[in-house]
Amino acid sequence: MLAIAIHGGAGTLSRHETTAGQEQDYLEGLESALDAGYSRLESGGSSLDAVTAAVTVLEDNPLFNAGCGAVLTRDGLVELDASIMDGGSLAAGAVTGIRHIRNPIALARRVMEQSPHVMLVGEGAEEFARSQGIEFVSNEYFRTPIRQKQLHRLLQGAAEKENDLAAHLSDGLGTVGAVAVDGRGNVAAATSTGGMTGKRWGRVGDSPIIGAGTYANNAGCAVSATGHGEYFIRAVVAHDISAQMQYAKAPLDEAVRNTLARMKTLGGNGGVIAVTGSGEIVLDFSSEGMFRGARDSAGRREVAIYR
Questions:
Q1: Residue 263: how many CB atoms within 10 A of its CB?
Q2: Which domains does the chain have, with CATH numbers?
Q3: What is the DSSP string of the chain?
Q4: Which residues contact residue 105 at a Cβ distance below 8 angstroms, ignoring those fewer than 6 apart?
């Protein structure tokens, strides 16, 4: 069965802070990404093609915290991270701390397919991008007025909020991602993010870290995560879910539930999307909401924000 799931970040705005118009804009953005990915599957494309297409649409949508519309660092810049993984070969690619690549997920895929490495960082990643003909843009391209306001608000209360992850979350901590299974039963996962508002010191979250924010293995499942990145790294969330399926033969929903519960005991909130080679999809989260969507060849097609 063909199947794809996407997310646009967990820790969404509270219901009382979201207008009907804003909610509709987000839902339409999710639908566009979902359909772009699914169309690749429907036309015979690979799961890698599907997750790349879906995440690219989300990176180009300024509503989400990835690519255009990503959150700003403390210095007012945009620094982007992304990763992708193939569940058949266990090949993976990731980039972090990049500032001038329009679609970081495209570069992560090139790292996977055209280099001997898994992760490239900052200027080195962009040097590789030039050799691959990847599209460059100015850092200004990514910045939007709402993200500038969020940074300003954070800096005004910096003394109180410097180490408050919850405050960062409400100001745009988020991620976009996709998981898919194709007609050959191969799964893939992709994740992209701007990180957290006001980040400093070259901070890197879970999104570009294989096994934390992204993981895919045909023997288990494909996972993309979103939320408090530091906790997802510590709990190795994406790999842990797949490993429970592969080694303990746990059902997908149980593996997801177990891992999110374990992460929450550490103090972290967030969510995951996951898919198996048979087309089973799970979308679960411990936050108030998660921008998400799912579609499969059995007729399922849905997008949602809250429970």
A1: 24
A2: 3-306 (3.60.20.30)
A3: --EEEEEEEESPPPGGG--HHHHHHHHHHHHHHHHHHHHHHHTT--HHHHHHHHHHHHHT-TTSSSSTTPPP-TTS---EEEEEEETTT--EEEEEEESSBS-HHHHHHHHHHHSS-SEEEHHHHHHHHHHTTPPB--GGGG--HHHHHHHHHHHHTHHHHTT-HHHHHHTT-EEEEEEEE-TTS-EEEEEEEEE-TT--TT---STTSBTTTEEE-TTS-EEEEEE-HHHHHHTTHHHHHHHHHHHH---HHHHHHHHHHHHHHHT--EEEEEE-TT--EEEEESSSEEEEEEEETTS-EEEEEE-
A4: 52, 55, 56, 59, 82, 84, 190, 192
Q: Under a CB-based contact definition with an 8 Å cutoff, are residues 50 and 208 in contact? A: no
Which pair of structure tokens corresponds to residue 53?
């297409």
CA 102 to chain centre: 16
Spell out a b/e string for 145-161, using b for 16 or more CB atoms within 10 Å of the CB, else e: eebeebbeebeeeeeeb
Angle at the Cα of 47 (from 231 to 282), degrees rounded to 5?
45
Q: How far apart are CA 230 and CA 227, in angstroms?
A: 9
The answer, yes or no, to whether residue 158 has pLDDT greater than 70, is: no
265 is catalytic: no
Nearest to 244 by CA among 219, 280, 212, 275: 219
Residue 166 has pLDDT above 70, yes or no: no
pTM exceeds 0.90: yes
Q: List the catalytic residue out of 52, 175, 193, 259.
A: 175
> 216 falls in which pLDDT band (50, 70, 90)?
very high
Q: Is residue 172 predicted with pLDDT exceeding 60?
A: no
Cα dihedral value 277, 192, 269, 153, nearest 10: -160
Residue 5's identity, in one-letter code, is A
